[in-house]
Write a structure and sequence with these properties.
Number of helices: 3
Distance between the termini: 61 Å
Shape: elongated
Order of helices and strands: HHH
Mean pLDDT: 89
Structural class: mainly alpha
Largest sheet: none
Radius of gyration: 23 Å
Number of domains: 1
């Protein structure tokens, strides 16, 4: 068993500490990101947008830019 040393000053600076089992932490982190399910016209529109983007990428119409000024 490992020994963990926690500094009281650091805990006070960080405003507390939480110790969780890894399995419970994974469950909490999965639920932290909301899931959205689209149906109907919204789902079709998004599917079309993604397929258009993939087609443009495959045909070489996309390019990498470092800033918005590169869009000229």
């Amino acid at each position: 068993m490992a020994i963990i040393t926690l500094s009281k000053n650091k805990i006070m600076r960080e405003k507390g500490m939480v110790i969780l089992p890894l399995e419970e932490y994974n469950k909490l982190s999965e639920r932290a990101v909301p899931e959205y399910y689209l149906t109907g016209k919204a789902a079709r529109d998004l599917d079309m947008l993604v397929s258009d983007g993939l087609r443009d990428y495959a045909t070489g119409k996309c390019r990498r830019i470092k800033s918005l000024s590169d869009l000229d």
